[in-house]
Write a structure and sequence with these properties.
The complex is a heterodimer of chains A (87) and B (475).
Chain A (H helix, E strand, L loop, with lengths): L2 H15 L14 H4 L4 H15 L14 H18 L1
Helix pairs in contact in A: 1-3, 1-4
Chain B lengths: L4 E8 L3 H12 L4 E4 L11 E4 L2 E4 L17 H8 L4 H4 L1 E3 L2 E6 L5 E5 L3 H11 L4 H13 L12 H6 L5 H13 L10 H14 L2 E3 L3 H14 L3 E3 L4 E7 L2 E7 L4 E9 L3 H8 L14 E9 L11 E7 L17 E5 L15 E9 L9 H20 L7 H7 E7 L1 H8 L23 E3 L8 H18 L3
Parallel strand pairs in B: 1-2, 1-12, 2-9, 6-14, 12-18
Antiparallel strand pairs in B: 3-4, 5-8, 6-7, 10-11, 11-12, 13-16, 13-17, 14-15, 15-16
Classes of the chains: A mainly alpha (87), B alpha/beta (475).
């Protein structure tokens, strides 16, 4: 999985949990919280949808790794790759 | 051999909070079953049919209404958490509501879903109070009302530190208390903040077809997520073992087990499922209960001159007394709801006129009556409640109202207990709330009325919060 694919995965999840947000101009390097109205309930949902849809586990201590799309890609891409290697 | 069914989560009660918790848990793959004693969902906010007519119970108006694009409020959070598109609720806004005080409503504060209207009414009627009122509103806006761990403080004390006119104070407390306070005379400030925002800073709306639309959406989401439900099958008993809710005994006698149990039926009601607590240690049940009269009219209320008010909160006395009355009904104050007066859009209206009035009542003056006396009392109080409320609406002759009325119904504290199981008909539950939803059993949690987020949006958020906090966040 490329980092761009990974960002799209996260964006797809956000589009489903917060359909009232406009995601066209989300900047990858800026914290999601600073450009979208997402609260802790929404971040919990991002984590849980990652598990439900993709089998990716994000322990609570690592939630901060999901702050921006760039940091999501850095953190999640190796997890997706590791999962793909296993199957 | 163990042949009991096992669930990840068992939910007691298919009201708004239980359904919302169920949707969250089922969506994230938990094996969930909701157990509901009645044949209808909705609990305190349900509906029924009588002579081919559909009646709503509970819901006058959905509070917490905000328009599309307003984010970060309870309604938006709820829609996101339950993956509901706001169009599915088809919410239509109120026209206007009022708080009317004095023997014939001489002091009246109008409000709409635009807070500026209410603020200007306060400024006009209470010019010496408006600065304090604005500071109070700032305090309310910045208060962390959804914190699960906050020390309780008296709302009356806080409000009096901003306002010194008891009339205005009571006029603010009347709607807020009527729409959600389980406590007499005063309320916890956090609860006041939740309700003030829900009523005044946000607003009122309703689907054309009433509460059933909301319940239909919730049921469909729950079904799609794979949740199970058992209707006409309540939980009769919780058997505790080693500090945990180990076995649930159903009304059928069947026994089931669940890793987690969420009870939406109330704190003292849940306590009684676990066992009879030693005398003097039991949780206190609420005393606040209501009667409601419902009149079905053969024309739109507007045709009778009642076309502007959606909700009217009224009080005829020098102070507003929110307490369990000595008499069967307290006629001094109440709430009028005219569901026709939401803005349903061009060419859309309810098929008949509806005029509802709610007043405080006393459970033990209704519960023990023999059936014939009970029915006579209902007729007598029905007339008195209507007469009291009509003082606060544009004048209409007895004859004109009587000839427009095609059907009536009335619920009493006894009806509430019969259909919801709430001890003493306490619609808003016990006076002490359990914000974190904990009980003495480690895997048994409360949601709904006695967890303490109020209103129907609050009820749903309560179910969501408890499912997140106790189960989903823990993986």
């Amino acid at each position: 999985m490329t980092k761009e694919d990974c960002k799209q995965v996260v964006l797809d999840i956000i589009a489903d949990i917060a359909p009232d947000e406009d995601l066209k101009n989300v900047k990858a390097e800026i914290r999601l919280r600073d450009q979208l109205q997402l609260d802790s309930m929404d971040f919990l949902d991002i984590v849980m949808e990652l598990r439900k849809r993709h089998g990716i586990e994000v322990p609570e201590a690592d939630y901060q790794q999901l702050a921006s799309l760039d940091s999501c890609a850095e953190y999640l891409t190796p997890k997706f790759d590791a999962l793909a290697a296993k199957s | 051999m163990n042949t009991r069914s096992h669930y990840d989560v068992a939910i007691i009660g298919a009201g708004m909070s239980g359904l919302a918790a169920g949707i969250r848990l089922a969506h994230f793959g938990k094996k969930v079953c909701i157990f509901e004693r009645h044949n209808a969902v909705g609990g305190l906010n349900s509906f029924y049919s009588l002579d081919g007519r559909k009646f709503d119970v509970g819901l006058h108006a959905l509070t917490n209404f905000v328009r599309p694009g307003v984010k970060g409020t309870p309604l938006t959070k709820l829609l996101r958490q339950l993956r509901i598109d706001r169009d599915e609720f088809g919410l239509c806004e109120q026209k206007q509501s009022r708080v009317a005080f004095g023997p014939a409503g001489e002091t009246s504060l109008r409000f709409t879903n635009d807070f500026a209207v209410f603020e200007s009414e306060v400024a006009r009627q209470f010019p010496t109070q408006i600065d304090g009122f604005r500071r109070l509103v700032e305090r309310i806006k910045t208060y962390d009302d959804v914190s699960l761990e906050i020390a309780p403080i008296s709302a009356r004390t806080v409000v009096r530190s901003f306002l010194d006119d008891p009339l205005l104070e009571d006029m603010l407390f009347c709607p807020v208390m009527y729409y959600g306070s389980a406590q007499e005379h005063d309320m916890e400030f956090g609860q006041f903040v939740i309700m003030f925002k829900a009523l005044f800073l946000e607003g009122f709306a309703r689907p054309l077809e009433g509460v059933r639309v909301i319940l239909r959406v919730l049921l469909e989401k729950y079904r799609q997520a794979g949740g199970e439900r058992r209707m006409k099958c309540g939980v009769r008993k919780i058997i505790a073992r080693a500090g945990r809710a180990d076995v649930l005994v159903l009304d059928t006698g069947e026994e089931i087990q669940a890793t987690h149990v969420i009870s939406s039926i109330g704190a003292p009601e849940t306590e009684r499922l676990v066992g009879v607590p030693p005398a003097g240690t039991e949780l206190e049940a609420g005393r606040l209960t209501f009667v409601e009269t419902i009149s079905i009219l053969n024309q739109q209320p507007a045709a009778l001159g009642w076309g502007s008010d959606t909700i009217v909160f009224f009080n005829d006395s020098s102070r507003f007394d929110y307490a369990c009355p000595a008499a069967p009904v307290d006629l001094r104050s109440g709430v009028i709801c005219i569901p026709n007066n939401f803005d349903y859009g061009p060419n859309r209206s309810l098929p008949e006129g509806i005029f509802r009035v709610t007043c405080l009542a006393r459970y033990d003056r209704w519960a023990p009556l023999p059936d014939d006396v009970y029915h006579n009392e209902k007729s007598r109080w029905y007339a008195d409640v209507q007469r009291s409320a009509r003082r606060f609406l544009p004048a209409l002759s007895d004859g004109a109202l009587a000839s427009a009325t095609v059907a009536t119904d009335m619920f009493t504290p006894r009806t509430i207990t019969k259909f919801t199981g709430h001890i003493g008909g306490a619609i808003y539950g016990a006076p002490v709330k359990h914000r974190q939803g904990r009980t003495p059993l480690e895997n048994l949690y409360l949601c709904g009325t006695d967890q303490g987020f109020l209103g129907i949006i609050g009820a749903m958020l309560s179910g969501i919060s408890m499912a997140n906090y106790h189960i989903l966040q823990k993986g």
